[in-house]
Specification:
The chain has about 550 residues and is of the alpha+beta class. About 50% of the residues lie in helices and about 10% in strands. Keywords: FAD, Flavoprotein, Oxidoreductase.
């Protein structure tokens, strides 16, 4: 029987970890050891790749409101293939286990990068977030939920985080859901408008006001089981959303009507817990954005290596080489920035409200990396589509989907204006920039090759922060998004140059220098860049993983 999908994709059947030498080396650098993710890379490149594309096109989740006995179930029917994928990733590959088993949480994000499909990864991310909050702030429920949420039990549990409401979106202070206490329980009433995993989740986190509390700092965090203590449905699923992508995750509207719930942590401190939980998922968003971009890049890279025009391969045309160079340099900087931020998070993971300086520095970085990686993913996937010409716009081929999928990453977990406002708060009130500048000053001191380029980027980073600090509130907010972009690109270039210096891999040094010119200075490459391009764009070559 013909393997039809192999005729539609240029990377189907390839090991997505083994061929991605830049990712391997960046991950090794921040992990301090080599992870064997080759088995997951093989799965990501074949069964997972085909299945997620098929779900997007043919087999999306369906809402089922009633049972055969006429009882309200408000459940979701997903294909057996999707069930199999989720079970395999949770149980066999243990994508949610590392942090809870005493390992670096970076392993979770590395696996998420390889999964990349944002619908499937959203289901896993929400479940991981739920386990994280319960584990850290609700020890009484640790044994009830966490083992099932991370795949340590035979029966899998799925989680969800339902925070936003129609009238406020990211402005949680505008929420209207109320909580009343009685009989040792809390009862929540209100509507949650963006509720992913609705109908799938066994337990969800949500927020509500109670008593005289109001505003963002009056919210409390609650845990809502799918079934109440009488075994009845604890909430209603009004409808599922129609979306342009991320179709494998059901996103709906949830109605809470005296829904039984349990408070997590201290009353009135939900904004801290939610912000921290969002930091977990913003890093997921960054890892997914990079993974999406990598798959799109690989599709374009292998396609240009076999498609001929005007008597030679596409990849032999200088203009195509430049496009691939732009994509790869931008992607490597995004990956380096992402895993630097994850390293910081792993080091500050035990901090609790009111949090220490290390956590605040991590939070500042997370706002920046979320924004940079999302924008980069949208740009890289668009270029990958273009490099395929007309067939890149046809939905029958998988490369088209990656651009659609990338477009959610600037929106999920707070759009760029939200990230800019939160970045300002971390700088103005938490003074998190002090630790950031000190850290990058130390990084700069370890650089020898391309030091001038790194110093120029550091000056751009520092000047951007100094400019914001010199402005009034409204002026700073007006310029914050642009400053956030300059800061992110400046740090990405420095990190690539640093990785190259520390590992002796000159391809990273070159990539960082090219990044600095193209995305920090915003100038065209010098003509000699075409001679450097080959060593950078051929991401699957053995030389990319060797010291040059």
């Amino acid at each position: 029987m013909d393997d039809t999908y192999s005729f539609l994709s240029s990377i189907y059947g390839k090991n997505h970890y083994d061929i991605d030498k830049p990712f391997q080396k960046i991950l090794d650098f921040y992990m301090g050891k080599h992870l064997n993710l080759s088995p997951l890379g093989a799965y990501a490149g074949k069964d997972l790749y085909e299945t997620t594309d098929y779900i997007d096109k043919v087999s999306q989740p369906l809402q089922k409101m009633w049972s055969i006995d006429g009882k309200r179930i408000d459940s979701i029917l997903i294909s057996p293939m999707e069930k199999h994928v989720l079970d395999k990733l949770i149980h066999e590959y243990g994508i949610s286990r590392p942090y809870f088993h005493g390992k670096s949480i970076m392993e979770h994000y590395a696996m998420g990068y390889l999964v990349a499909d944002p619908g499937i990864y959203c289901i896993l991310t929400l479940t991981h977030q739920t386990a994280y909050a319960i584990h850290k702030y609700a020890p009484d429920f640790q044994n009830d939920y966490v083992p099932g949420l991370i795949g340590d039990t035979k029966d899998t549990l799925l989680g969800a985080t339902w925070f936003t409401e129609i009238q406020g979106g990211s402005d949680l202070g505008a929420n209207k859901t109320r909580a009343e206490s009685g009989n040792g329980l809390w009862y929540l009433t209100g509507d949650k408008y963006f509720a992913s995993n609705a109908g799938l989740a066994d337990v969800a986190l949500t927020s509500a006001f109670h008593g005289d509390n109001h505003g963002a700092k009056g919210l409390s965090l609650f845990l809502i089981p799918r079934k109440n203590n009488d075994g009845e449905l604890n909430y209603r699923l009004r409808r599922l959303k129609e979306k342009s992508a991320t179709k494998s995750v059901p996103s709906g509207e949830v109605e809470l009507d005296s829904s039984e719930a349990y408070m997590i942590g201290d009353a009135g401190k939900a904004i801290y817990y939610i912000t921290e939980d969002l930091m977990v998922s913003r890093l997921d968003n960054a890892a997914a954005a990079c993974g999406i971009a990598r798959k799109a890049y690989l599709e374009a890279y292998y396609y240009t290596g076999k498609r001929k025009t005007f008597g030679k391969l596409l990849i032999e045309h200088p203009g195509i080489v430049k496009d691939l160079l732009d994509m790869e340099v931008l992607l490597e900087g995004s990956i380096a920035l992402t895993f630097k931020s994850i390293e910081l998070f792993n080091n500050s993971i035990n901090s609790k409200p009111p949090y220490d300086d290390e956590y605040n520095y991590t939070r500042l970085m997370t706002h920046i990396v979320k924004n940079i990686t999302a924008d980069s993913s949208a740009r890289i996937t668009q270029m990958a589509t273009e490099l395929h010409g007309g067939i890149g716009f046809l939905s029958e081929f998988p490369v088209e989907r990656w651009h659609r999928e990338a477009l959610i990453t600037p929106i999920w977990e707070g759009a760029s204006n939200i990230q800019a406002l939160d970045m300002l708060e971390a700088i103005m009130r938490k003074k998190a920039h002090i630790k950031l500048l000190s850290d990058f000053k130390n990084i700069l001191s370890e650089i020898r090759e391309e030091k001038a380029a790194a110093e120029s980027c550091y000056n751009s980073l520092k000047n951007s922060i100094d400019n914001l600090l010199s402005m009034g509130v409204e002026e700073a907010q007006f310029h914050a998004k642009y400053s956030m972009e300059v800061m992110g690109h400046s740090m990405a270039a420095i990190l690539l140059i640093h990785i190259g210096n520390k590992t002796g891999n000159n391809d990273f040094v070159k990539a960082g220098s090219l990044y600095a010119r193209r995305f920090v200075k915003k100038e065209d490459y010098e003509s000699n860049a075409i001679g450097q391009a080959g060593g950078i764009i051929h991401v699957d070559s053995a030389e990319r993983s060797l010291k040059n």
